[in-house]
Every structure is written in C-alpha cells, then in structure tokens.
Amino acid sequence: MARRKAPEKGEQLHRAYLAVLESSSVDQLSTLLGEQQQFIRFLNQQPDFRGQAAAALDGYQESMVAAHGMETNAMTQVSNLRIELARTLQEEARNVEELVRVEESLSGTTSRPYMQAIQRLAGAQRAIGNSDRALSLDLQAIHIADLTSAPNDFQRFQTRINVASTLAFLQRFDEAEQLAADALVIAKQMHPPQDVQVTNQIENIRRQKETARAIVH
Predict the structure, then answer these.
(1) pLDDT tens-digit profile of 26-80?
(2) Which end of the chain is less packed: N or C, by CB atoms within 10 Å?
(3) Angstrom distance (rounded) from CA 146 to CA 156
(4) How many CB atoms lie within 10 A of CB 178?
C-alpha cells in the first residue's frame, strides 16, 4: 500500500494484523514481535506517520520485556531499533549510549558485546565531532580486546588501527605510529597476514606528519 501511495491503508492493515496477533495464543509471540518491528519501520518511513514510531517502539519494548524479561539480549534488540530510527547524529549518539548501558548491565565492561557497543559509540561520537571522547572509547576497546582475544586475533589488530587513525586525525603522529607499529606485529601473526594493510597505514600516517610539519614551517 505504501508503494502504491496509500500509506493510510497500509497503516490500517498493519494495525489490523497486530490486533489479530495480540488476541492469538502465545504460539504467535515471535510473529507478533516481528510484525511490531515491521510496523515501527513502516511508520518511520512514512512522513505522515513518523511521529507514531516512538510510541510503537515503546509498545515493542513492553512486549519484549513481557516475553523475555529486562535482563536479556532482548533489550539489545530494542536499543538497536532505537538507533536505527534516530533522525539526527546527536539522537543516534544518545541511543548508542543507551546500548552501551544495556550491554554493561548484561555482560559487564570486559565482554565482547560491550566492546562492540563502545566501538559503535566511538563512531557516533566521531560523527558529531567529539574526537576526544571517541579516542577514549577506542582506547578502552583496545584494553578489552587484549583481555578477551588471542594474541593474533583480528580484534586486537583492528582496535589499534582504529586508534592510530584517530590519533593521526588529531595530529598526534608519534602515538599513531607507535600503535600502528603494534598493530603490525599482530598483523604478521594473523592468518592470512594483514601486514601490507598496516604498512600502508603507517606510510599514510608519516605522510600526514610530513604535511603537517611543512604547513607549520
């Protein structure tokens, strides 16, 4: 209906289907939750109904809590949907902050899911111009990766590359080169080795450093 320029009819059909599912047996629970997700996305994509998406999302959260409880991965799904529906970079950053809090409550501050959440938050903070906060989060990710990963694990390599890039952007070139050199050691132990990628990164950092020095002088 939406594709045929009849979003009102589409909205009515979604609500009718939800009503049927809500009055059905518990066997329909997974179908109900899936339809609630689809309805939220539908509302968010239609200018006339976008304002209703937040209320629908609250209803979805209530259904998830009733089905799975608060202290479960269900809340991660709710947070991810809030991030998806964000309309501004600032709103996205706030919603990712909530995801970080959820992951902390579920698995603590040294788990892979928490690390992935703070990496996502680092990206959101970088997008709104908060490079210092992004750097702090990325450094925390290095620490978690070292705690939870094998010596040649991709995460130990990637977290260092992320921070090296941020440091170079901040013109902290010596620190960037050191972290990239650490990443190179890990990259050579990976299967397959990733040392070519890191070598290119190091050369790029050095070029940026030379350019910055030339501008100063």
Answers:
(1) 567 778 888 899 999 998 888 888 889 988 999 899 888 888 877 778 889 999 9
(2) C
(3) 6
(4) 14
